Amino acid sequence: MKIPINVFIFVTTCLFLVTFLGCGSDTGDEDIVEPGPVEFKSASPENGSTIRPDDSITVIFTGIPENLTTVPGTIEQPKNRTTINGPFPLGDITIELTWTDGTQTLEYTVVPEGMVMVREGEFQMGSDSEESAKDEKPVHTVLVDSFLIDTHEVTVGEYRLFVEETGHPAPEWSQAELYAPTDKHPIVYVSWHDAMAFATWAGKRLPTEAEWEKAARGGLIAKTYPWGNISPKGKQCNFADKNLTHYWWSDKKADDGYAFTAPVGSYPENGYGLFDMAGNVWEWCLDEYDAGFYAVSEGVNPISGANTPQQISESFESVESNRVLRGGSWIVTSANVRNSTRFMLMPESTNYSVGFRCVQDLP
User: Fold this and answer.
1) Of 210, 206, 186, which Cα lies nearest the Cα of 196?
2) Looking at domain 115-361, does it have CATH number 1.20.120.530?
3) Which of 41, 216, 246, 340 is a Cys-bridge partner for 60, taking CB atoms 3.0 to 4.6 Å apart?
């Protein structure tokens, strides 16, 4: 009996696939087992990436690793596609993988959602420019330890959740909404005490003045603004522009798109990935205001009014002295959204142009 040529080709092809390619089987990475010692192939996210504390890391080996262990993290059932689960500690971490045939080191930076790490380093704090005030002088070298900082100012929505969960006295919402109308706008009408209470609830704190300025500079050296030395024209930040027609000091040639506050993140981030470090709302800092502090400031993690941030945080409810604000706001001129501009208010003060953001210490 003569077999039709098309049937012969089909049968031959299937036999070839079954014999050599495993026709009908799953050929994913976790089923490929290469001969010889089991070796590390890759990791996802890639080695050196930034991850979140509760993220998982997928590691692929050439085979199934025997006696696989990891520090830190926990391992699901070892196979050649293995998952390492958190939680992972904050900061720069090294994950040590060990198995019968070898070892592998992975390095990651662990940062909570909505925050970035500002790494330890020196910077020049203050300004000696002609437009700088006396309290911005002298320029001095400051070393700040690594810390985590919110990428954006605390929003109306975030603050509303804090009030609902804690029963903390709320701002007059109808008044606040005139200047910050949505949950994506920065909260306003919050005192320093309010900001400290929120930060404590969130497991964070307010930034020191030195931390704030280092973060605002975004890695740039001796620049006036977070983006450089060019005065804002409306695309860089929210300040007193043509939309504030009833303020004589507003820049009638600039248009930032908003009369009052803008939703957080409306303008480009700085070199550290931080939004609105210039303009939008003034931001409360931890420090007691001292006009002459720069002349006597310690060179390492300086803070006015205490020896450590913890000392202020533990007794903030009893604080009565003026507190520092930084960054300028929607109602000030371009000269007042400079990196080095300092302002102050009493800790119980509230205002339609004052808000805050938080930082978090690393272990």
Assistant:
1) 206
2) no
3) 41
What residues pair up with 40 in beta bridges, in sequence order? 61
Spans of all domains in the chain: 33-110, 115-361
* CA atoms of 185 and 174, how far apart (whole Å): 14
Which DSSP symbol is given to 293?
Answer: G
| 264: DSSP letter | T
| Contact present, 147 and 363 (Cβ < 8 Å) | no
The pLDDT tens digits along the chain (363 residues) read 454 544 444 444 444 444 444 444 444 444 555 578 999 999 999 999 999 999 999 999 999 999 999 999 999 888 999 999 999 999 999 999 999 999 999 999 999 999 999 999 999 999 999 999 999 999 999 999 999 999 999 999 999 999 999 999 999 999 999 999 999 999 999 999 999 999 999 999 999 999 999 999 999 999 999 999 999 999 999 999 999 988 999 999 999 999 999 999 999 999 999 999 999 999 999 999 999 999 999 899 999 999 999 999 999 999 999 999 999 999 999 999 999 999 999 999 999 999 999 999 998
Strand order in the sheet with 74-75: 40-44, 56-61, 81-85, 74-75
Alpha-carbon distance 294 to 296, whole Å?
5
Q: Give dist(CA 83, CA 292) in Å, integer.
A: 54
Three-state SS at 363: coil
Give the C-alpha separation, 150 to 238, whole Å: 18
The partner residues of 58 in beta bridges, in order of sequence, read 44, 83
Token look-up 């248009």 returns 255
Q: Which of 133, 147, 132, 125 is nearest to 298 (CA)?
A: 125
Residue type, 358: C
Q: What is the Cα–Cα distance from 194 to 200, expressed in whole angstroms?
A: 10
Choosing among 3.40.50.2300, 2.60.40.1220, 2.110.10.10, 3.40.30.10, the CATH entry for 33-110 is: 2.60.40.1220
How far is the CA of 281 from the CAs of 12, 23, 55, 238, 260, in angstroms?
74, 64, 33, 9, 9
Q: In the numeric block, which tokens belong to residue 173?
A: 């919402």
Within 10 angstroms of residue 24's Cβ, the number of other Cβ atoms is 8
